[in-house]
Design goal:
Blueprint: E1 8-17, H1 20-27, H2 34-38, E2 43-49, E3 53-62, E4 65-76, E5 80-87, E6 91-101, E7 105-114, H3 126-153
Antiparallel strand pairs: 1-7, 2-3, 3-4, 4-5, 5-6, 6-7
Length: 160
């Protein structure tokens, strides 16, 4: 099967009942526990974390073999971060933007441009992948809002 070389843009929005500074900190605090929160089965290794960004790698054992990705994230507080993702099946550029809404709601706008590597095959159907990403962020959103509520009771409580 010939690889689909045309880039494809995937976008969606997700809303969280938490203030923007909390959402930014929570979303950019990458940990090895992220797959559990996402309700997925892969391993995350944190290579580097700091105030300007993070580097991590994900490894998944799939029926078709290993899938690996290397992610470099640049933080642009308080409203934006950017990820470059390369690997055995991925080649992405992803922008995450936050905006404030009334009543303590923060909206995330996800925009990812996916190019396909030779091993990755064709780009998935736009609606299918956007649905999977929305589902993943719905799981993250539940955890984020739970952690935010807990932080109101105990300010020293950290994410995850």
């Amino acid at each position: 099967m010939k690889a689909d070389s045309a880039p494809r843009v995937y976008e969606f929005r997700s809303r969280f009942h938490a203030p923007l500074p909390f959402v930014f900190r929570w979303c950019t605090d990458y940990t090895p526990d992220d797959p559990r929160i996402e309700r997925d089965d892969y391993t995350r290794r944190i290579v580097r974390k700091g105030p300007r960004g993070a580097v991590y790698e994900d490894l998944a054992d799939l029926p078709t073999g290993w899938q690996w990705s290397h992610v470099v994230v640049d933080f642009h507080p308080p409203r934006y971060w950017h990820a470059e993702i390369v690997g055995s099946h991925r080649d992405w550029h992803v922008d995450y933007r936050l905006s404030e809404h009334p009543n303590g709601i923060t909206e995330l706008h996800f925009r990812g441009v996916r190019r396909t590597t030779a091993l990755g095959g064709r780009n998935p159907a736009k609606a299918k992948l956007e649905g999977e990403l929305r589902g993943m962020w719905k799981n993250f959103g539940r955890a984020l809002e739970r952690d935010y509520r807990a932080s109101l009771k105990s300010p020293a409580r950290r994410r995850r």
